[in-house]
Design a protein that fits this description.
163 residues, alpha+beta, four-stranded mixed sheet, three-stranded antiparallel sheet, 6 helices
Length: 163
Amino acid sequence: MILYHGSNVTVLNPKLIKQNRFLDFGFGFYTTTNKAQAIAFADKVYRRHKDGGRIVSIYELDEQQAFSECSVMRFDFPDEAWLDFVTENRSGNYRGKVFDFIYGPVADDDVYSTLALYTSGVLAKEQALNALKIKKLYNQLVLSSEKALRYLRFVGIISEEEL
């Protein structure tokens, strides 16, 4: 499996760094199989930091080996379990099992609006799930343990000049 990580720097050796904000799948190193999504994220990070460049690091992961030797939580589509998991993580309230890998849909800016309406009580759970069904959702694979990071192999970058 080829994975991408968008940033403002090259990430040769990914590390687990505590964030000062709550993300969809909690703590971890976020990647995607979607190159365009990684490029868009690199652009967002670069604009936020105004330092470095728009850089996408590329990795290989032997998913068969990694997923058979590690714990994996997988969401194939934004269902009720995904909505609960993302909502709990984004609010900082997730207290469940910690997995090595978490795979599933990423909540982009459009999806964040739906999540905000749901968490504020404007939308009921069923309404939020129905709204999510019509959205185009990309994927993310989060490596949330040192064990998971050992399966990731850096293979190169897509630099700003190549984007």
